[in-house]
Design a protein that fits this description.
The complex is a heterotrimer. Chain A is built from three helices and no strands. Chain A is mainly α. In chain A, 60% of the residues are buried. By secondary structure, chain B is mainly alpha-helical. In chain B, strands 1-2 form a two-stranded antiparallel sheet. Chain C has a domain of 84 residues: Four Helix Bundle (Hemerythrin (Met), subunit A), CATH 1.20.120. In chain C, 72% of the residues lie in helices and 0% in strands. Chain C is built from seven helices and no strands. In chain C, helix 1 packs antiparallel against helix 2 and helix 2 packs antiparallel against helix 3. Chain C is globular, with a radius of gyration of 21 Å. The N and C termini of chain C lie far apart (59 Å). The chains are: A mainly alpha, B mainly alpha, C mainly alpha. At the A-C interface, helix 1, helix 2 and helix 3 of A face helix 1, helix 2, helix 3, helix 4 and helix 6 of C.
Amino acid sequence: MHQIEPWVVLSFCSIIFFIGFTGVLIRRNILVILMSIELMLNAVNLTFVTFSKQLNHLGGQMSVFFIITVAAAESAVGLGLVIAMFRTLRSVDTDEIQILRE
Amino acid sequence: MLFWIPLFPLIGFLINGIWYAFGQAPAGRKKAGAGLPGAIATGAIFASFVVSLMIFIQLLGQDPEHRAVEQILFNWMSVGKFHVDVAFRIDALNTLFTLVITGVGTLIHLYSIGYMGHDETPGKFFAYLNLFCFAMLMLVMGSSLPVLFLGWEGVGLCSYLLIGYWYTDIEKAKAGKKAFVVNRIGDFGFLLGMFLIYSTFGTLDFESLRHLFGHAGSLPEGVSPQVITAISLFLFVGCMGKSAQIPLYVWLPDAMAGPTPVSALIHAATMVTSGIYLVSRLNFFYTGSPTAMSVVAAVGAFTAFFAATIAITQRDIKKVLAYSTVSQLGYMFLGCGVGAFSAGVFHVITHAFFKALLFLGAGSVIHGMHEEQDIWKMGGLKSKMPRTYWTFAVGTAAICGVPLLSGFFSKDEILWKAFSSPSGSPWLWFLAAITAVMTAFYMTRLFSLTFLGAPRFEVAEHAGHSHDHPGHDHGHDHGHGHGHGAKKVKGIAVHESPLLMTLPLMILAVLSIVGGYVGWPHASWIEHWLEPVVGGGHEAASGVSESLEWILMGVSVLGALIGILTSFRVYRNLSLVEAMTRNVQWLHKILENKWYIDEIYEAVFVRPIQVFSQLLWKGFDVAVIDRIVVGFGRVSQWTGETVRVIQTGSLQVYALMLLAGLIGTAGFLIYGWH
Amino acid sequence: MDISPFFFYLFAGLAIACSTMVILKKNPVTSAFSLVLVFFAFAGIYALLDAHLIAALQVFVYTGAIMVLFVFVIMLLNADVPSFDLGRSHFLMRVSAGFSALVLLGIFVWAFKESSFHSIGGEFTLEKIEAAGGNTQVISELMFSEYILPFELTSILLLAAIVGAVAIAKRKLVGGRV
């Protein structure tokens, strides 16, 4: 089998990223939207690692380390918000929280 | 030292103005008393008079050919070759003007302390008065046209402010506005003249211009006579506005709405003579252009005659004097127009004395009559106001041309020059002589109706009187005074004015008597004095002998006497007056309505402009401009309403739009350049 | 790139399939477990790319911590809501989202394919890393030397997140009592 070119890996990242993005757009359950965001973050992480590998530079992997940390924090706060929202609205439906319109 | 002359009034203005604006005005309409502001203002102008006198004495000791004091204060503006300094230059001509302005000004300031004693805002009044003196002194002392113009506009502003001084009366405010607008028309001509001078000669300095001309009557090389004529006429338009000549005289009678000392100072003695000053100052232009001279003389003579006809029928004491002023200004321009600039300036000086006297006397009468201005409601004031009576009598005699009083000398000089000088003509003389007769007639009428005969008002019975009546307030002066006083109060307690007011009257009376001796015929000091600046009097045209001069003088004296005596006889018997008036009712009506000039102007100029403005307002401003402006608003509103739909409030829709934007951006980055 | 194509395509295929399940499955519990599989697949790819520490962290943090959190929240909320299985959004929204995503994906793939990533000769070649004690050793040394400041900042961020999450999720006090 032939070698894997970097653009193939990066394209795979793009696919995962846009799957995540589509998930954000089409789902109404806020928990699934948060999961989709995690997907997008992972896709970006993989690009970092790919570049790190390709360019022989460890900065990319360092970035991924920090992104993982931030993602953990983000999940904690985001899920806290979900709980707060559910407590107020008794729902996790994003259609219910269009208060930005006002 | 020169700059002290205008500086003193400016300081007075600043003190009074700042004190008024921050000390008196915020305290509501609390009466501040005229004493202290008046004293400051009078002191300022008196100090200025002293300096003027010192300058005059300095000039007396100088060589006649180079008699001048000059001071350059600072550079005003310098643009390319255009260079203007704020500089003063006093020579034989304007030293007389500074003396008159500061001298008569001091007396009028003094008088105002008494006259404005009951006014509500004397601080403001004296501040304006000092500002006026400052501007007037700038006008006559400036060594170049721009500085003169600064003063020219300054006096116009002060005139506006003081005419509309009691601005709560809409009529008075309107009179101020009228004066301002009419003056602006004249100023337009002045500006055009000034621009033309600069583009032709490249300088606006009087001395430089005079040197360009050389001897009287000769033109600078390469300048066509037409240009000189155009410049002279443009500047004369400015003079018409400021000095109330036909056709721009209409503002001056209305200007009588201001306080009487203002009428005396601004609208009789000083500001209105600035036109004569300008013509005399630039006499070399006028002598260089016979056409302009003829125009000046004709306008002057006709104005003199025309205003005199109106003055005959006026009922308001100040209106009579106002038309008389217009008429006398016409004389002065007649003098200038026939080349006798010194005669014109001479008449300015004597006129300043006796007309200030007459106005202040009228003010005293109005003061004593409690704001009554209608001479038909006066009469018999001789015994009630003796000091005013005597001084007014002197003023009347002087303006009528009674021999050996000041008016006689100056008027006779003008009449003689109008007849004899090369640019004069018997017709001008005839018109002026008729005017002299009419002047004698209407002034005697005024005097007679005011002071002689029986009182035509209810005399209040009172034992003794004080100078200070409670409930007597100039702040509520009904300017056009058609008998409010007599109707409101049951009877009028006439009283003589306080000494503060009569003292200036007496001083001016003395000056009106002796003021003419500086121009004794054939030994005229003033003509000799002014000769280096305005040129000597022209030699009489051939065939005019000295005996003719005596004959003409006799004729004018006779004319004055006829006018006086006729008037006395007629107005002694008032029923006769009524009969006469009935006989020539149509003429009387025309004259009383001032030839309907105001109405004609209204119909010919004011109405069409108003209609046109209305048209622009309704037709263009509202219909087009406003619609465009409102249209912008409508479009924004409509767009907002329409585009608002996409603001769903749903985060996911926003994210989708973000994605769309991303596609656009990425697409542009990839394909955009190629 | 010297990675095994077989394992790459294996993990990539697994990741794509499971991601699709994440966003398409109606039940959030199914989505969550699909996501766990995606994370494992990613960990595999990291390992293929010689990023051993990241691969380990991926498993610990994502599958271990974050996913447990998700499942825990789902369990917490699912208890008293019958209609928790929410469907997808409006049809038009789905179509336009899918279309836009495909277009942009096309642009991305095209852009990656057209670009060339030459090795610019960075200092951390595979051999050097091996010589210095392996991936984890080198990254750890970097983390406590060159990247010490971001590292410390991250700790502060985590602290803030802990406080924030507690503050947000905490039940409102009633009547002033704790």
